[in-house]
């Protein structure tokens, strides 16, 4: 039996059915802390008692980072095609349709252009709710076009990663996006335009192997899972117990793969502080 048809063990919840931002009157964090959902939203989806950062999507990140939530969305109507006519437990074409209906998104990334603290900024932000934030041809193309917009208009570029990795339903088309986005970021570097990479929970697979770790500065939210293969796969492959906190943002920072970790409340200020420093502008 093919691996993608196994159901007797492991995670069985369909990716598109998993929730990021909690629904309902109350939210219970993994440490057992309970908070009113409205209060959680006002606190930028961070549990105040234990500082747990709830997964959020592009809608919430744009609200946090763009001044007055004003921005222009680029390439918003690009959608994926089932070029390979892929079928696992359902047709890929049906999976795309279901994901679009449930999330109201066209694919797993959105690109916005607006002002953050008065300065122009291009933001590409991934949405885990759309097939696990998996990276297919549309994700790669929209990131590439976002970088092109940054180069053409000489605007700094911010990439917010939240992904389970390559989209298996697109096979080699998905893997090609690693090289494509990396090449575009090389052009951005040649143009001497700043690139900030923000890793959020989770940043794994091909995303980590390409654009997520290529920033001029690589930052993360607290507690985010950052790695290539998941901890369970690494443990099963090596046959060894993993260090405490393995693949958390704090572990990755300690081992030199991040520049700093920033709480969500400080994200807008920290991003703009770096842009001011690298562009030699007065710090606001």
Automatic annotation (TrEMBL):
Pfam families: Carboxyl_trans. It comes from the Bacteria. It catalyses: N(6)-carboxybiotinyl-L-lysyl-[protein] + acetyl-CoA = N(6)-biotinyl-L-lysyl-[protein] + malonyl-CoA. Pathway: Lipid metabolism; malonyl-CoA biosynthesis; malonyl-CoA from acetyl-CoA: step 1/1. The keyword ATP-binding applies. Residues 24-284 form the CoA carboxyltransferase N-terminal domain. Keywords: ATP-binding, Cytoplasm, Fatty acid biosynthesis, Fatty acid metabolism, Ligase, Lipid biosynthesis, Lipid metabolism, Nucleotide-binding, Transferase. Its EC number is 2.1.3.15. Gene3D superfamilies: 2-enoyl-CoA Hydratase, Chain A, domain 1. One of its GO terms (biological process) is fatty acid biosynthetic process. One of its GO terms (molecular function) is acetyl-CoA carboxylase activity. It is found in: Cytoplasm. SUPFAM superfamilies: ClpP/crotonase. Its main location: cytoplasm. GO terms for cellular component: acetyl-CoA carboxylase complex. Component of the acetyl coenzyme A carboxylase (ACC) complex. Biotin carboxylase (BC) catalyzes the carboxylation of biotin on its carrier protein (BCCP) and then the CO(2) group is transferred by the transcarboxylase to acetyl-CoA to form malonyl-CoA. HAMAP family: AcetylCoA_CT_beta. Belongs to the AccD/PCCB family. NCBIfam families: accD (TIGR00515). This is Acetyl-coenzyme A carboxylase carboxyl transferase subunit beta. It comes from Flavobacterium silvaticum. The gene is accD.
